[in-house]
Amino acid sequence: PDLLLTEWGDSTLLPGLIHAAAAAKIELSLNRDPARRIERARARSYTSYGRILFKESATTLAGRLHVDTENSFIADQCHLDGLWELARITKLPVQYTARTSTGTGISYMQMEIAYRDGTLIPEQKAEPESPKRPDELLRADRGGLVFPPRLGFFENVAELDFVSEYPSIMARFNVSPETVNCACCPEAPRVPELGYHICRKRRGITSRVVERLIEKRQQYKHAVGAIHESSLGAIRESPLHAAEELRESYNLRRSSLKWLLVCCFGYTGYKNARFGKIEAHEAINALAREKLLVAMETAERQGYRVLHALVDSLYVQKAEAAREDFERLAREIEARTGLPMALEAVYRFAVFLPSKQSAEIPVPNRFFCVPEEGGEPKVRGLECRRHDSPPLVVRMQTEALKILAEARDRASYGRKLEEAREVLARYLERIEEGSAPIEEFIISRRLTRPPAGYRQNSATAIVARQLDRAGVKLRPGENVQYIVTDADAVLPDDRARALTLWESWRGYDVAYYQQMLRDAFKPFEYFGRTSRSLAGSSPYARLPSSPRIASTDGLSSGRFFSTTAQTASRSTPK
Ligand SMILES: [Zn+2]
User: Fold this and answer.
1) Domains, the chain, ranges and CATH?
2) Residues within 5 Å of ion ligand 1, judged at the Cβ atom
3) How much distance in Å is there from the Cα of 129 to the middle of ligand 1?
């Protein structure tokens, strides 16, 4: 075959086959080219953006392709269509593209442009950061801007998103490592907050890379829209089916390009990036913050209430606004910021939730919204979104949400809540009776260090030690799965049990899992009371147009300032 598509081929299947063939003295030619040997790369743990990750070993072939969908992010997410697309646009070998990070793809696209331009390519690391005073660092190192939500239950809410905001900024404002603080244009307009300037004479390499990606995504979008069953009739037997296939293929290619775009931004500040410069990263962030403030100000000026704003999206509300009004607002913001903005959705209601620790404190990204036309609610920050929650908890929350999503407004929400409580009661009962299979109770956690490296007796640490004693080789970045057997046991080892070592006599901790369920139901209760006393309650009730600011890294949390005052005095590079 030309292509070998496997699951677990890299680490298990192919090495196993090779091993077995050798033991049986059978000749096994996995390579088409007999002169070449099979390439093997070892597994390793590594750190990326502060997270410890685990990379499987790789087995690649000569003369034919081997793609392991369990060891290829892109083949897993965007199938082979996406993989071909990335190999084409980055010009990297397919087997390498399948296994490498998308950041590497970006890096190679940058090098290609630089090479064709005749620009020297740094042999290794990026330019070092220019020296900064502490206050400059503080200003520069803020991440995306986040305005914690107004807590409460809100009807008729729209979500407006800047489309691929960071890449759009790089393309539109020519932000690229070599264009920030260039030597040739000291008089160029300044980036807000930071005072950096951006080159006006040369087009940035990264800007050109993202421009190409944005454009290609756009082309696929148009191509999807231009597919007509009738035009395919002449070439295919089943035009309807062919059209569907083509649409699917274009969409997969589009989303593979999206993954490249997403990491473009991260890569501008990445310490190992060849074309990286932290100032470019900071400039993009600063521009993004400014655009978000402009968007908020525009919305408020037109009588919309801004409920929540985070990084590149905006939740606004106005009682009588129709979809067209929200559309018009998006166009207005586009015109004022120079960045594409889309009306992502109109919600019949949105519920913004406080932190788990305190019902008074709003936290970003913890909410659920139900689309105007019904259907799947948008959920952030709840257990059912997390891959490490026990399936039982995920299912209870999902079922309860499904019922709540039938509500049309605040009054009917109260009634639906009664119905949803029955779901909770049913699950609590199932735990008590022991009628749920043990798989429903599995909790997963990622190891952040080797088993011996844990000092505390967290469940993860206890379980890692159990597995270690049982001879399982664990590396940081790998996942462990366990059951909580007796959370309050005196002996730490009795508190939780690794799933593979769990036996039925150990059972599970009924009270612990019941509490987990109750906690997972709490978000639905906060604003479920039919009295209107809590509607729109917010710690800033007295400061209607001056929300508190907390950036993602928390550096500026706790400061108050008016959005209008901040945006008025800013200059923007044109
Ligand atoms: Zn310049």
Assistant:
1) 3-117 (no CATH), 390-525 (1.10.132.60)
2) 182, 184-185, 199, 201
3) 18
